[in-house]
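Q: Here's a chain of 109 amino acids. Please give me its 3D structure as tokens.
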Amino acid sequence: MKKAIALAALISASALAASASAQTYRSEMPVSSTVDVTVVNVTNDPSTGQGSRLPLNLTNPGPELIEDARAQLEADPALVDALAMKNVQLANVVHIQTAANGGKIVYIR
């Protein structure tokens, strides 16, 4: 009987230790961005090949379009982090669009 109680205590203790270890390991994992980002370079117009042409307001953006993009960047630090991971310089962002899946399409020059 003592062996059964000792075995049950050992199993219980190992289960608790494993969950504590998993929690510690998870907290040390690097945080990745949850923003799905697609970057489109507007200086490389796909119309030279078989692709579709970009709208003129993106290939030649006005100041209001760029200001709107800057405001969106200031309001979304996760997007800024995702763009940094893709080596995008924020000064080159001309427009940001929300995709159907909730991700972001970022147009750069």
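Q: Can you summarize the key feature?
A: The two ends are 75 Å apart (CA to CA).
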